[in-house]
Amino acid sequence: MMKFFGTLPPFLTFAGALLAFLIPFLFYKVSNKIHEWGDPPWKNNKKPSS
To answer: How far apart are CA 48 and CA 36, in angstroms?
Structure first.
């Protein structure tokens, strides 16, 4: 079993680690933008500045 994991090319390992970070991060950013554009005013939790 360890022999199989030892034969993975370094670029594939790097690409997997990068995608494991980028995909959830992009979903987070897109979700925030959708909420920013689409939430009704009463659901907006921003405090008015004094």
So the answer is: 16
